[in-house]
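ok new one. same drill as before - structure tokens go in, u give me an amino acid for every spot. 219 of them this time. try not to just spam alanines like last time pls lmao
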């Protein structure tokens, strides 16, 4: 990571060095000093994880484009192949899973299906209801999303296959945070709340489609 990446974040977000510094955990004076350095000035490695985590938050808030070359460079800074592999194995994704930072809703849902299809992941979700319920303390919207997904996995009307996304999202919620934002930039662009939202919305759309029933093509 170099000074050019940091300058691009400041330019794109419109933040002052003081504002961005507070997010990173640095003084504005330190950032201002860095911005006066040459573009290829290397950011001290000790600060790279904090800057990368801040970049994740800004992407999830829609303030940075994950497709931007500068953003991609930051998200991938300091990550080794071993770290990627450890995170992928922990989530149960294929070892050749594409770790491109760009993720869209369809790819997220597909990844959740792969995770939720594993019996071991299903078992972990089912054996940790209290731990899952604790996240409801985060607020009403958290409660709604979690309750929707829990009702899905408990449903006797839905097939196991239809429950995979719910299992995947709830397992993701249980996954230690260190395995996602720091080590795995594809799903890590979205926080737990967003992942729950993608999954809950999927089931709400499914329920809506079932309620409406088949459409008469003659209409």
């Amino acid at each position: 990571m170099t000074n050019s990446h940091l300058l691009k974040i400041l330019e794109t977000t419109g933040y002052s060095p003081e504002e961005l510094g507070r997010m990173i955990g640095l003084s504005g004076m330190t950032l201002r000093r860095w911005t006066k350095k040459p573009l290829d000035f290397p950011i001290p490695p000790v600060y790279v994880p904090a800057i990368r985590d801040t970049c994740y938050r800004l992407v999830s808030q829609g303030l940075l484009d994950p497709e931007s070359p500068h953003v991609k460079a930051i998200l991938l800074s300091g990550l080794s192949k071993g770290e990627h592999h450890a995170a992928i194995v922990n989530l149960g994704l294929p070892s050749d899973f594409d770790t491109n930072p760009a993720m869209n809703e369809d790819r997220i849902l597909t990844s959740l299906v792969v995770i939720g299809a594993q019996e071991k992941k299903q078992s972990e979700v089912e054996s940790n209801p209290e731990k899952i319920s604790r996240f409801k303390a985060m607020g009403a919207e958290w409660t709604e999303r979690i309750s929707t997904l829990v009702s899905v996995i408990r449903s006797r009307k839905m097939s196991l296959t239809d429950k995979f996304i719910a299992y995947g999202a709830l397992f993701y919620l249980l996954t230690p945070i260190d395995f996602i934002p720091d080590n795995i930039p594809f799903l890590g662009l979205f926080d737990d709340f967003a992942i729950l939202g993608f999954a809950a919305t999927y089931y709400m759309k499914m329920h809506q489609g079932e309620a409406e029933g088949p459409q008469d093509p003659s209409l």
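Residues 17 and 23 are 10 Å apart (CA to CA). and btw The two ends are 58 Å apart (CA to CA).
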